[in-house]
Every structure is written in C-alpha cells, then in structure tokens.
User: Fold this.
Amino acid sequence: MEYIDWGDFQKVDIRVGTIVEVEDFPEARQPAYKLKVDFGQEIGVKKSSAQVTALYTKEELLGKQVLAVVNFPPKQIGPIMSECLVTGLHRPDGSVVLSAVDMALPNGARLA
Assistant:
C-alpha cells in the first residue's frame, strides 16, 4: 500500500449529489446506466455512467444521493462525456454497490 499525505487527499474533491436522471446505456461495453447528478448551485448537474445494473433499477437510482469525484477532467465514454466519477465498491461477484450517505445532505456537500 502506498501512503498519501493530507495534501494529496485534499486534492480529491468528493461531493454528495442527487441522481436526477437515469437512462439505459446500450452502447456501453458492459451493462450500465447514463446518469445526471445534481451537485447543487456551485457545481451544477454533471453527467456520468455507472455499471450498477446488477443491483439497482432506474427507479431505485432516481433521487438517490451518491458520492462522486467532481474534479477529474471530463472523459469520453462511448457516446457520452463523463464529467464526474460516481464512486462504489465491488462485491465478490463483481457487482458494484454505490457509495452513498445514510442521511440527507445538501447537494454539493464535500467529503471532509
């Protein structure tokens, strides 16, 4: 394991946002959804994709608050430009559990 210092950690801007739109992403190599996540007035709505179809329906995702890295540069993923990285953890079977908060927070609240 490589250690980082506090300054390295502070460079990663992880914010809470609410998923406001979910669409199928049939062009993806692996099953995925296209997401729009609202990070509040300061950051706005950002697009992303997530390979979470094994555990979440579109209806379950809509309105869910998730944690995402918002300061990566945009990345082309198939036909969409991903603007943030929605975080999650892999289960032993390879499915992804989204990183989320257990109480409602204002969109844009930063992980401290």
User: Anything to note?
Assistant: The radius of gyration is 14 Å. The helical segments are 6-11, 58-61.
